[in-house]
């Protein structure tokens, strides 16, 4: 996730059970762009023991080719093209999810990029721009170009993060594509992850917002797939995670401004605090201004050993529709 899943976040996550690989924040690509140095450090200074895919977003083909060639000189596991970002500022430029309105242009971009990229080349997409009925046509395009992997966020661009995922679309891709298909969207705990996997037979799961809220989710899912007990984090474990992330991010800041750093952390805390039994934590954190406020609120509400709730509340405005996975995910 842009402005969240950076190098400090990767470090903190990896200490709690790293995923099989990471994907960088996206490199914005346009005629005047160069790979952002801060994002590039997620590749060049990665010490997590896990490979990293470099993610590009843009629509200018010469710039995409130039950027892919530059990124390929670094120790990347592969190059990923983002066709799924639903941010209005991105879609207005017909990049990210906005490109899904133009399947012919996607076809042209993928064909040229596939020829130019000698290593792994993968795509992240949604199931359509306005409707999931667009997805079969998009799958035809993806099949044309020998991509090495397809990650599908199971919503349309227009649905953003507000609906259940379209499990049937991901399942169709698994049955159609020659490459591994990764299911993404609404994995908030072990049960939703297992259900999404069972309902699609996907090769794996990509987790974004669910991992911000619960950095143990990768270790928990790995344990579940192995049939062994996974970690059961407590509120105090969450406190340690929050404090560690604070200090990791502070150490990355050239000119540390305490009040600005607290605001940066509050963006992440909106996912972390959401749905805890003690609603006062989320309420108070919105009003934190200084580091003293921040740490006092965290320690007041989190410094105890009660287990964390495994998933957000049903009806959550941040994690919408995950309960549908529990009702509809069936073994294939």
What this model shows, in words?
The chain is of the alpha/beta class. It folds into two domains: 7-226, Aldolase class I (TIM Barrel); 235-302. It is 45% helix and 11% strand. It has 15 helices and seven strands. The protein has helices at residues 7-14, 37-44, 61-72, 88-91, 103-116, 135-143, 167-176, 190-200, 209-213, 217-226, 235-252, 258-272, 280-285, 291-302, 322-328; strands at residues 22-28, 52-57, 78-83, 121-126, 149-153, 181-184, 204-206. The chain has a seven-stranded parallel beta sheet. β5, α7 (167-176) and β6 (181-184) form a beta-alpha-beta unit. α3 runs parallel beside α5 (103-116), α6 (135-143) runs parallel beside α7 (167-176) and α11 (235-252) runs antiparallel to α12. The longest helix has 18 residues, at 235-252.
């Amino acid at each position: 996730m842009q402005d969240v899943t950076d190098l400090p976040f990767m470090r903190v996550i990896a200490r709690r059970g790293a995923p099989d690989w990471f994907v960088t924040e996206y490199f914005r690509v346009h005629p005047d762009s160069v790979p952002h140095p801060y994002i590039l450090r997620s590749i060049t200074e990665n010490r997590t023991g896990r490979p990293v895919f470099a993610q590009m977003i843009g629509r200018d083909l010469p710039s995409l080719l130039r950027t892919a060639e530059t990124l390929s000189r670094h120790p990347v596991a592969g190059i990923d093209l983002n066709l799924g970002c639903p941010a209005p500022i991105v879609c207005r430029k017909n990049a990210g999810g906005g490109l899904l309105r133009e399947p012919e242009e996607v076809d042209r971009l993928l064909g040229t990029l596939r020829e130019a990229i000698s290593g792994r080349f993968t795509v992240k997409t949604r199931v359509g721009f306005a409707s999931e009925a667009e997805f079969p046509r998009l799958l035809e395009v993806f099949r044309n170009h020998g991509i090495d992997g397809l990650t599908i966020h199971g919503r349309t661009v227009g649905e953003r993060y507000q609906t259940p995922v379209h499990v049937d679309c991901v399942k169709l891709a698994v049955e159609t594509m020659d490459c591994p298909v990764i299911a993404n969207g609404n994995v908030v705990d072990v049960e939703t992850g297992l259900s999404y996997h069972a309902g699609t037979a996907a090769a794996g799961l990509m987790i974004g917002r669910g991992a911000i809220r619960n950095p143990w989710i990768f270790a928990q899912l790995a344990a579940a797939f192995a049939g062994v007990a996974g970690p059961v984090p407590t509120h105090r474990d969450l406190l340690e995670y929050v404090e560690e992330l604070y200090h990791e991010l502070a150490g990355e800041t050239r000119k540390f401004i305490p009040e600005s750093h607290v605001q940066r952390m509050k963006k992440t805390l909106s996912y972390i605090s959401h749905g805890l039994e003690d609603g006062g934590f989320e309420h108070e954190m919105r009003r934190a201004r200084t580091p003293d406020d921040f740490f006092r609120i965290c320690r007041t509400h989190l410094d105890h050993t009660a287990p964390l709730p495994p998933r957000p509340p049903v009806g959550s405005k941040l994690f919408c529709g995950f309960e549908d996975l529990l009702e509809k995910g069936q073994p294939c």
